[in-house]
Amino acid sequence: MSQVPSTSSSTPSNNDWKAGLRAPPKDFRPQTEDVTATKGLEFEDMFLRRELLMGIFEAGFEKPSPIQEEAIPIALAKRDVLARAKNGTGKTAAFVIPALQQIDVNKPKIQALLLVPTRELALQTSQVCKILGKHMGVQVMVTTGGTTLKDDILRLSESVHVLVGTPGRILDLAGKNVADLSECPVFVMDEADKLLSAEFAPVMEQLLSYLPSGRQVMLFSATFPLIVKDFKEKHMSSPYEINLMDELTLRGVTQYYAYVEERQKVHCLNTLFSKLQINQSIIFCNSTNRVELLAKKVTELGYSCFYSHAKMLQSHRNRVFHDFRNGVCRNLVCSDLLTRGIDIQAVNVVINFDFPKNSETYLHRIGRSGRFGHLGLAINLVTYEDRFNLYKIEQELGTEIQPIPQIIDKGLYVAPNATEEASAPQQKQTPQQQQQQRQAQAVASAAAPRAPAPTQGQVVYQSNGQHPRQNGGTPTGMTQAQLKAQAAYRGGQAPAAR
Q: What domain of life does the UniProt record list for this protein's source (predicted)?
């Protein structure tokens, strides 16, 4: 992103200071009420410093989303905040903006601590801080497990204003008196329900003891279990509660299920690849072993594919995340490692290759598409064993997951102004490209050749009339074309894209 000089003297007057900004191209994609149903408050009405406003507008932010409109003014008043809003509606900026506003860049101390549950989310959040605060001279540091402690110690010997990271590593640095949190007035927990789970709760308790008693505590999440209530009563002072979850699922995400046998899943996925207009897709599995096996199958079918899971080296995970975000590869197979907070605007299709066990995981998975009010598609491959989970998740989320139709209207998940490149058929890779892809997967780092986007067409996988929630439900039947394709695939030849 291009930068302009950071001094306010470069802006001629109060009226035309925005004229010199270089904002990204305007996004004309339609947006749902999840991000448009605001009261009309503007960023310029929030009494933010000029340098911060410059970063906000150069990042492409035009108007606050509902969660930003509600949370930022309250946070600027230094009140504790307990905020609940849907995935992909702008929660990160809702706490980053007020945190940056309170930074005194002349004071070489950590003044904002932003905690997140995963390493990928830490990298993403720190990047948002750097982009929004680039004209302020604010120093942002990210620290997570899986990296060298020595590098963090050297970095903290210099000035750091905002510290972003995962709880274990930050507690380690604080316990070694390397990270001085004694004058840190802002404490933020993103994906707070995860951070207060049994896995992280003891660490959070210890971390709070290193912060001053008068700190401001802000909790943000899409789901708040009862454990959050206990934390609120113990560690928060009359928090201002925001709940924008009148419904749980995103309005822009259309949800379907395909009722299949386990052995039909790969074939079904292949059919989806050849028929859907996928810009980028994330495919979720329930275990790390299945992630690698499926990634291998997708590559054998001839499509470019990365994979990521918790057992990989951190440097490889970072490379995969970075390259996928930059559009190097079309498809990403992963475990629930990437369900929380990961914001990749180009993802318009999420596929649950393995159906999740609970509604919370389902909600976070499908929230990877339809980011910031845009359109997205969630497709669930459901087996006979998943039928009760399907029903339970529908009931708990108050939503209905429809059987997949023969034709999926591309208007449900493809922006009207999609480019010609995004309308081209998704092509399978050449043998040479497939060899390169296998080498890339072996190290889980190198980039696979980028394939053009697919055409929209019929998705011919559908139920045979019986609902999978019924005890007597049987897996779907297939058309003659599908049976031929599957027979060819079993013989070692991948079904041809039609």
A: Eukaryota
